[in-house]
Design brief:
two-stranded antiparallel ribbon; 13 helices
């Protein structure tokens, strides 16, 4: 595995070392100590900033997929009970065409995770390498990037609440309290599980249109399985991760919570609970201050709620156009589809020329 992950491991070692050097230049202790913990937190920030464009793409893809749910359900209902290969193939083709027309993909939301998992495994292997480097038994040589025996010993002596960064729940170095390490690891694992559950619940329950939250909807079922299943997986596998990896992961989850909170507040999916809350905030802001930014004004007008809002018989907010957020989102999607259909002949003519 180290051979495959070696380039990422080398890069991570340099980032950790570089952040540590900057912190010591700013006055922190140069040996074992909190500077190495902050270096791991700094690594979290660097990685998150690198994947930020992919995260934005993930959110847009997730948003488009949620808006497409009514159309997806129509296709699924059309082929319900048809298990023959021809019907399954036609359903797949219609699904692909739908995603293609919308300019998204069902797998686009997985990109940030696919990028971050190799980084996580590489960090795991970097922290694992500190002990053999310090002992002079590392099979790849006497150093990993800038990490030599003296730097490795500094890192190995760094602790958080008495637990060394290189220790894990089932691997405690000699000279340290087993129970201290296990308690610190258990607290970090529990924090990891809770924050992971919260971030998934944020996107599932606050940023999905009510029409997509049908229990019979396969996409909603998958989201619910992930919301409960993924935290449970890490509850049991977390015992193998070093304290340093758990610190990195917990910090990353806190970053995700802040990032998602900002997104749900400023750019939610039309028809979702978060979108209804945003429209209410914009309307209240306009009534209070009498002015909005051009973008906010356009959003409020497009939502059909810049002046008139009432509750229909189902308890949904209805704008002055007589539509709910979900109906308006579907209408916008149908309008975009019609625009794309009209633009196709023009594109074909251009290609022929």
């Amino acid at each position: 595995m180290d051979t495959i992950l070696w380039p990422i491991m080398w890069l991570i070692s340099w980032i950790l070392y570089g952040i540590h050097k900057v912190l010591t230049m700013l006055g922190m202790h140069a040996g074992s100590g909190p500077a190495w913990i902050l270096a791991i937190l700094g690594l979290t920030v660097v990685v998150r900033l690198i994947v930020l464009p992919l995260y934005n793409k993930q959110i847009r893809a997730s948003r488009e997929t949620q808006i497409l749910q009514p159309e997806i359900q129509k296709i699924q209902a059309k082929y319900k009970g048809k298990k023959d290969p021809q019907s399954q193939q036609r359903m797949s083709e219609e699904m692909r065409a739908l995603y293609k027309d919308a300019g998204t993909s069902p797998f686009a939301s997985c990109l940030p995770l696919l990028i971050q998992m190799p980084v996580l495994f590489a960090l795991f292997r970097v922290l694992y390498a500190f002990q053999p480097i310090a002992n002079g038994t590392y099979p790849k040589g006497d150093h990993l990037g800038p990490i030599d025996a003296s730097v490795a010993k500094e890192f190995l002596g760094s602790t958080i609440f008495g637990a060394p960064l290189s220790a894990s729940m089932n691997n405690v170095p000699a000279g340290y309290s087993v129970w201290t390490v296990r308690i610190v690891a258990a607290i970090l694992i529990l924090f990891l599980v809770v924050t992971m559950f919260y971030t998934t619940k944020q996107l599932t329950m606050k940023n999905m249109p009510e029409s997509a939250m049908d229990p019979s909807n396969p996409a909603f079922k998958t989201q619910k399985y992930m919301m409960y299943g993924m935290p449970l997986i890490y509850l049991f596998t977390g015992i193998a991760f070093q304290i340093g990896v758990l610190v990195y992961w917990c910090a990353g989850n806190l970053w995700n919570i802040g990032q998602q909170t900002w997104f749900l507040r400023n750019n939610p999916t039309p028809g979702s609970t978060a979108h209804k809350a945003r429209i209410e905030r914009l309307r209240a802001k306009k009534e209070r201050k009498g002015k909005l930014s051009a973008k906010e004004e356009a959003e409020l007008v497009e939502a059909g709620q810049e002046k008139v809002v009432h509750i229909n018989e189902s308890g949904d907010l209805v704008g002055k156009d007589g539509l709910t957020d979900e109906e308006r989102a579907l209408k916008q999607y149908e309008r975009r589809q019609a625009e794309r259909a009209r633009s196709k002949p023009k594109k074909k003519k251009k290609k022929k020329k």
